[in-house]
Amino acid sequence: METDNYRCGYVAIVGRPNVGKSTLLNHLLAQKISITSRKPQTTRHRLLGIKTEEHAQIVYVDTPGLHQDKHTAMNRYLNRTALGSLDGVDLVVWLVEALAWTEEDAHVLNVLENMNIPVILGVNKVDKIADKALLLPFLETITQKRDFLAVFPLSALRSINLDELEKQIVAELPLSPPLFPADQITDRSERFFVAEIIREKLIRRLGAELPYRLSVQIEYFTQEEKHIHISAIIWVEREGQKAIVIGKQGHVLKKVGEEARKDIELMIEQKVFLQLWVKVKQGWHDDDRALRQLGYTDE
Ligand SMILES: Nc1nc2c(ncn2[C@@H]2O[C@H](COP(=O)(O)OP(=O)(O)OP(=O)(O)O)[C@@H](O)[C@H]2O)c(=O)[nH]1
């Protein structure tokens, strides 16, 4: 490994919900496990996905959407986390969607205005734009809004321009030896990822209907003789949501359980016995104390 010109630093990918942050991180890391995460964490950086290369180590920090709606405790929390997680970050990759500027993007712009961190702009989902000539005026308008280190039209999904983006990211990182061992892709515990895998499967099956309205708590995680026994509670807000998560004759929960178990077994390389329970915690979404009990805390 070259040490003299080695670069290493923290990079945050920010942007409004649904703009493609997870997809981008996924493709940049080429490591699925590192990025299925959505759950806020107690450490300063909500999530670490680490990419170690010959000349550089990029430590990615994913942030929750910078939400405009400050009404619920959860959204207040997410706002704090989003800002908090930019603290100490060397570089921001801000994603917007090609030809789809919204109020939420304006809100992110506003948040970034108040931070003294260099920003690379990624204009995502260009694969959706049939007439590429339309991109130019869009790029022009957006680049007038602030200074960017660089601007990249991208498709996170189809891996268009991602190598170029990565090169630029590396070029902007400080000269520093690697901060993490080369084989470490994440600093999160297995429990954390188990919860995230279950959450991901739920979201995949249920669509965007329940964005922040469910939470997965690992009740226990025990090594038995021949397998690991995991019991997880899926907390929802209302009876109606419980019925959705369980599905007709338990169909949804069964599928989620099967899919999650397979991924967990791949991750921890052991047989897993997984039990899922769905419980209703009324109003937890708007209750700071309940949030803390579920591990959503930034203290
Ligand atoms: N056509 C197209 N779709 C994309 C692209 N990138 C992401 N998507 C889709 O956009 C949707 C949202 O992508 P995510 O990666 O979950 O977006 P996100 O920004 O992480 O979303 P939040 O977690 O809600 O903040 C998914 O359906 C992706 O498949 C892209 O480059 N092109």
UniProtKB/TrEMBL annotation:
<keyword id="KW-0694">RNA-binding</keyword>
<comment type="function">
    <text>An essential GTPase that binds both GDP and GTP, with rapid nucleotide exchange. Plays a role in 16S rRNA processing and 30S ribosomal subunit biogenesis and possibly also in cell cycle regulation and energy metabolism.</text>
</comment>
<keyword id="KW-0547">Nucleotide-binding</keyword>
<dbReference type="InterPro" id="IPR027417">
    <property type="entry name" value="P-loop_NTPase"/>
</dbReference>
<feature type="binding site">
    <location>
        <begin position="124"/>
        <end position="127"/>
    </location>
    <ligand>
        <name>GTP</name>
    </ligand>
</feature>
<comment type="subunit">
    <text>Monomer.</text>
</comment>
<keyword id="KW-0690">Ribosome biogenesis</keyword>
<dbReference type="GO" id="GO:0003924">
    <property type="term" value="F:GTPase activity"/>
</dbReference>
<feature type="region of interest" description="G1">
    <location>
        <begin position="15"/>
        <end position="22"/>
    </location>
</feature>
<keyword id="KW-1003">Cell membrane</keyword>
<dbReference type="GO" id="GO:0005886">
    <property type="term" value="C:plasma membrane"/>
</dbReference>
<protein>
    <recommendedName>
        <fullName>GTPase Era</fullName>
    </recommendedName>
</protein>
<dbReference type="InterPro" id="IPR015946">
    <property type="entry name" value="KH_dom-like_a/b"/>
</dbReference>
<keyword id="KW-0472">Membrane</keyword>
<dbReference type="GO" id="GO:0000028">
    <property type="term" value="P:ribosomal small subunit assembly"/>
</dbReference>
<keyword id="KW-0699">rRNA-binding</keyword>
<feature type="binding site">
    <location>
        <begin position="15"/>
        <end position="22"/>
    </location>
    <ligand>
        <name>GTP</name>
    </ligand>
</feature>
<dbReference type="Pfam" id="PF07650">
    <property type="entry name" value="KH_2"/>
</dbReference>
<feature type="binding site">
    <location>
        <begin position="62"/>
        <end position="66"/>
    </location>
    <ligand>
        <name>GTP</name>
    </ligand>
</feature>
<dbReference type="GO" id="GO:0005525">
    <property type="term" value="F:GTP binding"/>
</dbReference>
<dbReference type="InterPro" id="IPR006073">
    <property type="entry name" value="GTP-bd"/>
</dbReference>
<dbReference type="GO" id="GO:0043024">
    <property type="term" value="F:ribosomal small subunit binding"/>
</dbReference>
<feature type="region of interest" description="G5">
    <location>
        <begin position="154"/>
        <end position="156"/>
    </location>
</feature>
<dbReference type="InterPro" id="IPR030388">
    <property type="entry name" value="G_ERA_dom"/>
</dbReference>
<keyword id="KW-0342">GTP-binding</keyword>
<comment type="similarity">
    <text>Belongs to the TRAFAC class TrmE-Era-EngA-EngB-Septin-like GTPase superfamily. Era GTPase family.</text>
</comment>
<feature type="domain" description="KH type-2">
    <location>
        <begin position="198"/>
        <end position="282"/>
    </location>
</feature>
<feature type="region of interest" description="G2">
    <location>
        <begin position="41"/>
        <end position="45"/>
    </location>
</feature>
<dbReference type="GO" id="GO:0005829">
    <property type="term" value="C:cytosol"/>
</dbReference>
<dbReference type="Pfam" id="PF01926">
    <property type="entry name" value="MMR_HSR1"/>
</dbReference>
<dbReference type="InterPro" id="IPR009019">
    <property type="entry name" value="KH_sf_prok-type"/>
</dbReference>
<dbReference type="InterPro" id="IPR005662">
    <property type="entry name" value="GTPase_Era-like"/>
</dbReference>
<feature type="region of interest" description="G4">
    <location>
        <begin position="124"/>
        <end position="127"/>
    </location>
</feature>
<feature type="domain" description="Era-type G">
    <location>
        <begin position="7"/>
        <end position="178"/>
    </location>
</feature>
<dbReference type="GO" id="GO:0070181">
    <property type="term" value="F:small ribosomal subunit rRNA binding"/>
</dbReference>
<keyword id="KW-0963">Cytoplasm</keyword>
<dbReference type="InterPro" id="IPR004044">
    <property type="entry name" value="KH_dom_type_2"/>
</dbReference>
<feature type="region of interest" description="G3">
    <location>
        <begin position="62"/>
        <end position="65"/>
    </location>
</feature>
<dbReference type="InterPro" id="IPR005225">
    <property type="entry name" value="Small_GTP-bd"/>
</dbReference>
